[in-house]
């Protein structure tokens, strides 16, 4: 597993976008002030991402009154893995608390599964749906 993102789940997305882009001057890799999700280059192998809190809560269905779940998370630590399904099965077998089974998040471009650590922090394991960093396929003759 490789830590690929620290995702802050924010209340005021636009203000946070401007803070990281304009005040801290982190280059924007994806998103804009209206996209409700953005990624920033923080000069490391791990990216910083911000996400409107309600978007994540709706996606994981944690915007309910279930006392076992936080109403809306504040942070997600994201790990990239080679095989989401195999890694998720191993984590469950080893006792990890799964929030959401592996699922293709086509809008996010990843296959992901979600877990909670013993203190309730949200963890995501994922893998891109489309291979990245591969040269384009040459046209057929």
UniProtKB/TrEMBL annotation:
Pfam families reported in the protein's UniProt record: Glyoxalase
Domain VOC: 2-128
Name by which UniProt lists this protein: Catechol 2,3-dioxygenase-like lactoylglutathione lyase family enzyme
Oxidoreductase keyword on record: yes
Domain of life: Bacteria
InterPro entries registered for this protein in UniProt: Glyas_Bleomycin-R_OHBP_Dase (IPR029068), Glyas_Fos-R_dOase_dom (IPR004360), VOC_core (IPR037523)
The entry's keywords: Dioxygenase, Lyase, Oxidoreductase
GO molecular function, one term: dioxygenase activity
């Amino acid at each position: 597993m490789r830590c690929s993102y620290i995702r802050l789940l924010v209340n005021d997305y636009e203000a946070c976008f401007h803070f990281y882009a304009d005040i801290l001057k982190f280059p924007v890799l994806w998103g804009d002030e209206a996209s409700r999700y953005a990624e920033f280059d923080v000069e490391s192998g791990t990216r910083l991402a911000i996400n409107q809190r309600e978007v994540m809560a709706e996606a994981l269905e944690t915007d309910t009154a279930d006392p076992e779940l936080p109403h809306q998370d504040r942070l997600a630590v994201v790990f990239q893995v080679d095989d989401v399904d195999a890694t998720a099965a191993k984590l469950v077998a080893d006792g990890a608390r799964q929030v959401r089974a592996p699922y293709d998040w086509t809008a996010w471009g990843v296959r992901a599964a979600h877990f909670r650590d013993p203190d309730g922090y949200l963890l995501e394991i994922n893998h891109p749906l489309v291979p990245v960093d591969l040269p384009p396929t040459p046209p057929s003759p």
